[in-house]
Design brief:
The protein is an alpha+beta fold. The longest helix has 19 residues, at about 630-650.
Length: about 650
C-alpha cells in the first residue's frame, strides 16, 4: 500500500516542481468562480458504487461510478435548487439534500427551505421524502435530516416538526419509505425536542430536549421500551450536544458546548444511567471537527481540526489505513469522505499541495489506491499557488496560526514586496486550513499573496483559543488580523502600500472593521455579506428566534449585550465609523441571504455615502449567504477582482 501512496505523492510533488520554471497558466475566472465540476462524493455500503455531483451547464447531475466495471453513468439533473449533499441510505438508494430560499404566504421572512429526495440507482426514479405527510409544519428550516436506516427495509428515520399552523409544533420522529417518499409517525416528540437517536431496529436510544422558555435541557432514553430521563440541567444554552452512540451501544457520545466551563468542547461518554466520563478522544490544542458514524449514528471515529486534519478511529485496522494515506500526502489536507460498511474501502479528498482537489479510493483488501477524478480539472497543477501553514505573535504575545497562499510559480527567492490580499474567515467560530480555497487561489494565480489569519475566536486550536475571542469583535480579534499583515511587511514579503482586505460574513465584518479602525493599513476593502451594525444584528436574531432563544444568548456572549454594553457595540459597529474610512469599499450581498440580512450592507452603503466615501454595492439576485450559485459567484468574483486590481493591482 505504501508504494501506491508514494507513487501518487511523487506525481503531485514533481508536478509542483515544474512551476519553478514553467510559465504559469492563467485559467479563466470561471474556472474558480463556478462550483467545482465534481463534489459531494459518497461510497455505497458494499463499496461497489461511488456517487457524486457533476456540475455542467449551470446545473448538478447525479453521477455514479461502478468500482468493479469503471462504468460512469449520468442520472438525474438537479436544477433551480442548491444541492447541499448526497449519501447512500443503502446499496440502492441515494439521499440527496437540497435547499432553496423561499417566501411562504403567511410568513414574514424568507427562509432556507431544505428537503431530501431519494434516488434509486436501479430504476432512476427520484422521490421527495416526507411527501404528503399529514400536518407537516410549513416554513421549517433543516427539513430533510436523515437519522438512520431501518434494518431490512428500504426506509429511513427522519425528524420533522408536525402541527397545524398557529399552534407550536412538536419535533417528531418519522419513518419514511425510500421508494415512495411517504412517511408514517414513529415516535412523538415535544415542542422542546431538538434531536433523536434511533437504532436500525427502531429502538429509540436517545431524545434530546431544550426549552428556550424554561432554559431547561434533558436527555431521555427509550432503551428499555419506556421513556426515562437520564440527564437534566438548567442554563441559557444546552450544556451538551449529542453527537452519536458508541458502536457497542453502551453509551452516548456527546460534546460539551462550552456553556459548562468544566466540559469545554471535549467528547464525553454518557451511559444510559446518566453517568459521564471522558471519551478518551481529546487532543491538546485542537478541536474535534467531526465524528464518523456508521448507519444510525454509531460513532466509529473522529476528525481533529488544525492546519491539516488528523484522525482517530476505534477500529485499529481502519485507524492504521487512514494514517497511512495521511502520511503519504504530507503537504496536503486529506479528508475521509465515506467508507464501506466494513471499512474495506475508504474514499478520500486530497487538497492542497499542487492539486485543486483529487478524489481517491483506498482498497484495503487489494492494497492499492485508485485515483477517481479531480474536483476541478480546468485548473492544472502549475496554476496553483503554494499553500503554507504559518504562525506569528500577536501584540499581546498570543501565537496566531494562519494560512498563506503564495503567487503561483513564485519561489522563496521571488517572494519579495508582494501585493497582499488579507482574507479573514467567516464564523467567527471557524478556521482556514491548508487546502484549495477557490478565492485565495484565484488571487494567487493573478500574482497576489493571500493571508488567511486564524485570529483568536477561531476554532481548530482548542477551547481556550476559541474563547479568547469572546467580547473581542473589533478589538483583539481585529488586532490579530492587523498583526499578521505587519508581520509579513516586516519580513519584506509584502508591499505595505498594496494591501487589500477581503472577507465574507464575519470576515466581511472584519474587512469593514479594518477599513474603519486601521484606515491607513488598507488600500481597498471588500465585504461580502458583512455584519455592519451589531445591535441591529442581535435585534434581528431575537426577532427571528425569540428573545429567549439560546442563539441570542450565544451572540450576546461572544459580541456583547446591547442593553448593558450599548456604547461598546455602537463603537465596534463599522456603520458608526464611516467617516474614518480612507480606502474605497466594495460591498457584495445576496438578496436572499437569510443569515445576514441584505440591509446590513444597505445601511453600510448609506453611511459611507453620507460621509462622502467611495463605496459600491453589488446586489446578487437570487443568491444566499454562501454564494451557492455558480453564476452569482462568478459575478461576485468578477466584481472583487476588478476592484482589487484597480487599487493594488499585481504586476
Amino acid at each position: 500500500m505504501r508504494a501506491a501512496i508514494a507513487a501518487v505523492s511523487v506525481f503531485l510533488i514533481c508536478a509542483g516542481a515544474l512551476t519553478a520554471w514553467a510559465q504559469v497558466p492563467h485559467p479563466p475566472l470561471e474556472a474558480y468562480g463556478e462550483l467545482p465540476q465534481v463534489r459531494n462524493m459518497a461510497l455505497s455500503p458494499d463499496g461497489n458504487l461511488i456517487a457524486f455531483l457533476t456540475r455542467a451547464d449551470g446545473a448538478d447531475f447525479v453521477t455514479t461510478f461502478d468500482v468493479r466495471t469503471s462504468k460512469l453513468d449520468f442520472h438525474v439533473r438537479l436544477d433551480n435548487v442548491s444541492t447541499r449533499n448526497l449519501w447512500f441510505a443503502d446499496n440502492e438508494f441515494l439521499v440527496i439534500l437540497a435547499s432553496d430560499t423561499t417566501l411562504l404566504h403567511g410568513f414574514q421572512d424568507k427562509f432556507e427551505y431544505s428537503a431530501a429526495f431519494s434516488f434509486s440507482t436501479k430504476t432512476n426514479e427520484l422521490a421527495p421524502l416526507l411527501r404528503k405527510t399529514k400536518d407537516l409544519y410549513p416554513a421549517q428550516a433543516g427539513l430533510g435530516h436523515v437519522l438512520g436506516h431501518a434494518a431490512g427495509e428500504a426506509a429511513v428515520f427522519m425528524p420533522a416538526y408536525i402541527g397545524k399552523v398557529g399552534v407550536e409544533p412538536t419535533y417528531d420522529l418519522l419513518k419514511v419509505n425510500l421508494a415512495s417518499g411517504r412517511a408514517i409517525s414513529f415516535k412523538k416528540g415535544s415542542q422542546s425536542t431538538i434531536d433523536w437517536f434511533v437504532d436500525a431496529d427502531g429502538k429509540v436510544l436517545a431524545r434530546e430536549d431544550y426549552s428556550n422558555a424554561r432554559n431547561h435541557y434533558e436527555i431521555q432514553t427509550y432503551i428499555t421500551g419506556k421513556k426515562k430521563t437520564i440527564f437534566k440541567a438548567d442554563g441559557n444554552r444546552p450544556p451538551f450536544s449529542l453527537m452519536g452512540v458508541k458502536a457497542d451501544r453502551s453509551s452516548l457520545i456527546l460534546a460539551g458546548s462550552g456553556a459548562d466551563e468544566d466540559t469545554p468542547d471535549n467528547l464525553l461518554e454518557m451511559d444510559f444511567e446518566g453517568n459521564i466520563k471522558p471519551a478518551g478522544l481529546s487532543k491538546p490544542d485542537t478541536d474535534i471537527a467531526a465524528t464518523y458514524s456508521t448507519d444510525n449514528r454509531l460513532v466509529a471515529g473522529v476528525r481533529y481540526d488544525g492546519p491539516r486534519p488528523s484522525y482517530k478511529f476505534f477500529e485499529p485496522g481502519a485507524d492504521a489505513a487512514v494514517q497511512e494515506v495521511v502520511d503519504g500526502f504530507p503537504n496536503s489536507s486529506v479528508y475521509v469522505l465515506s467508507h464501506s460498511s466494513d471499512w474495506s474501502k475508504i474514499l478520500y479528498l486530497v487538497e492542497g499541495g499542487t492539486t485543486a482537489g483529487q478524489f481517491i479510493l483506498q482498497d484495503r483488501t487489494a492494497g492499492k489506491l485508485m485515483g477517481i477524478i479531480s474536483a476541478r480539472d480546468t485548473i492544472p497543477a502549475e496554476a496553483i499557488g503554494e499553500v503554507n501553514a504559518i504562525s506569528y505573535p500577536a501584540r499581546d504575545g498570543l501565537n496566531i496560526p494562519a494560512i498563506v497562499t503564495w503567487p503561483a510559480g513564485s519561489t522563496i527567492e521571488t517572494r519579495d514586496n508582494l501585493p497582499l490580499v488579507v482574507m479573514p474567515h467567516g464564523g467567527p467560530a471557524a478556521h482556514d486550513t491548508v487546502g484549495f480555497d477557490w478565492m485565495a487561489q484565484y488571487f494567487a494565480n493573478r500574482g497576489y499573496a493571500v493571508l488567511q489569519p486564524n485570529f483568536r475566536g477561531s476554532t481548530g486550536y482548542g477551547y481556550d483559543f476559541m474563547r479568547a475571542g469572546a467580547g473581542e469583535w473589533g478589538a483583539k480579534m481585529q488586532d490579530d488580523v492587523t498583526d499578521g499583515v505587519e508581520a509579513l511587511v516586516r519580513e519584506g514579503l509584502v508591499d505595505p502600500d498594496r494591501v487589500c482586505i477581503v472577507g465574507a460574513s464575519y470576515g466581511g465584518y472584519s474587512a469593514l472593521a479594518g477599513g474603519a479602525y486601521s484606515p491607513d493599513l488598507y488600500k481597498c476593502v471588500v465585504a461580502i455579506a458583512p455584519v455592519s451594525d451589531l445591535p441591529r444584528m442581535i435585534r434581528g436574531e431575537a426577532s427571528q428566534h425569540g428573545r429567549d432563544h439560546w442563539a441570542v444568548d450565544y451572540w450576546k456572549d461572544i459580541i456583547g449585550n446591547p442593553k448593558t454594553e450599548k456604547d461598546k457595540l455602537s463603537r465596534i459597529s463599522p456603520v458608526n465609523s464611516a467617516s474614518q474610512f480612507k480606502a474605497p469599499v466594495l460591498l457584495i450581498h445576496g438578496r436572499d441571504d437569510t443569515v445576514v440580512p441584505f440591509e446590513q450592507s444597505d445601511v453600510m452603503r448609506a453611511a459611507l455615502t453620507s460621509a462622502g466615501k467611495s463605496v459600491e454595492l453589488v446586489a446578487l439576485k437570487n443568491e444566499d449567504h454562501w454564494l451557492s450559485e455558480g453564476d452569482t459567484r462568478k459575478q461576485a468574483l468578477e466584481a472583487m477582482s476588478a476592484f482589487v486590481d484597480r487599487h493594488i493591482g499585481s504586476e
